[in-house]
Amino acid sequence: MAHPEAIIEVDNVTTAYGGHVIHRDLNLTVHRGEVVALIGGSGSGKTTLLRLLLGLEVPQAGSVKIFGHPLGRCAARDLERVRYRWGVLFQNGALFSALNVFDNVALPLRELKSVPPDLVKPLVMLKLAQVGLKPEDALKRPAELSGGMVKRVSLARALILDPQLLFLDEPTAGLDPDSSKQFVKLLRRLRQELGLTVVMVTHDVDTLFAVVDRVAVLADQHIIASGPLAEVARLPHPFVRNFFLGHLERCAEEDVRRFRLSLDDTSDDGGVPAVLCEEEPAH
C-alpha cells in the first residue's frame, strides 16, 4: 500500500561543527498523519536534527525538505510561508514571563497580523479551551502556572495558527507522573481531532507507548532504525537495549494496544475543552 504524502524528507544529511561530525548520511521521512518519535543518547545530535528541521541550521551536505520545500535553499519569503504551517513546543515552554497567558498565545497572531484584531480574542480562547485550560487562566502570568499548565499554554501557542505539522521537544520533561499522563492523553486527543503530523524528541518510554506510530533511533551519526515500537525495541544495539531496559515486555503490539485502550477508557480525558461562555476574562 502506498504511503501518504511525505511531509518531511531528510536525504543524506551531513552536519559538522569544525572538524566534529554530528550527522553523516542521515535519512528520515515522515508521512502525513504520523506521530514519529526521535530517540537517541546524549550528544547523539537530536537537538541539531530538530534545528535542521526547523530551518535554524543548514547541513553541510544533503537536503531537508518540509512540505516539499528545501530548507536553506528557498527564498526567505517561501521559508516563512512554510514555517506558518508548523508549530513548535519547546522543552521548557519558552513562555514570555512579562506576558500573561492570553498574550503569550496571541503573540503569533499579532506578529503576523493574519487575522482581524477582533478575532484574536475568540481564537485564543478557543485554543486555550482546546488544550484543557479554563477562561480564567488567560490572565495568569507564567510564574503562576504549574509545570503541566505551562506545557498546555505552550501547546496552545504552537496550535494558534492551525498548523499541519507539530514539533515537540521533550513534551513531558519536568512533569510529575500524573501531569505527564494527562498531557500525553491530551496529545492523543488533539492528534485525532486535528489530524496532525507530529515529530517529537523524547526519552520518556510511556510517551512512546501512548501515542507514537513510529520510533526513529539516532545513533552512530545517523538513523540506525525507524519502525514500529515493537520492532525497534528489539534492535541489538547498546543504546536501544539500555533505553528499553525493563520495558521490553511492554513493547509487544498487543501490550501497547492494551495500554492505549486503558488511556482511552479512563473517565479523565486529559483535558476536555472548557466551555466558552460569555463571561470570558476581559482583555
Please describe the topology of this protein.
Layout lengths: L5 E12 L2 E12 L3 E6 L5 H8 L7 E6 L2 E2 L5 H8 L2 E4 L11 H12 L4 H14 L16 H13 L5 E5 L7 H18 L2 E5 L3 H7 L2 E6 L2 E6 L1 H4 L5 H6 L9 H13 L18
Parallel strand pairs: 3-8, 3-9, 6-7, 7-8
Antiparallel strand pairs: 1-2, 1-4, 4-5, 9-10
Short summary:
The chain has helices at residues 46-53, 76-83, 101-112, 117-130, 147-159, 177-194, 205-211, 229-232, 238-243, 253-265; strands at 6-17, 20-31, 35-40, 61-66, 69-70, 86-89, 165-169, 197-201, 214-219, 222-227.
Describe the overall structure.
The chain has 283 residues and is α/β, with parallel strands linked by helices. 36% of the residues lie in helices and 23% in strands. It has 10 helices and 10 strands. It has helices spanning 46-53, 76-83, 101-112, 117-130, 147-159, 177-194, 205-211, 229-232, 238-243, 253-265, and strands at 6-17, 20-31, 35-40, 61-66, 69-70, 86-89, 165-169, 197-201, 214-219, 222-227. The strands form 2 sheets. A 6-stranded mixed beta sheet has the order 6-7-8-3-9-10. Strands 2-1-4-5 form a 4-stranded antiparallel beta sheet, with helices on one face. α6 (177-194) links the parallel β7 and β8. α3 packs across α4 (117-130), α3 (101-112) packs parallel to α5 and α4 crosses α5. The longest helix is centred in the middle third of the chain and has 18 residues, at 177-194. The relative contact order is 0.16. Residues 272-282 have low confidence and may be disordered.
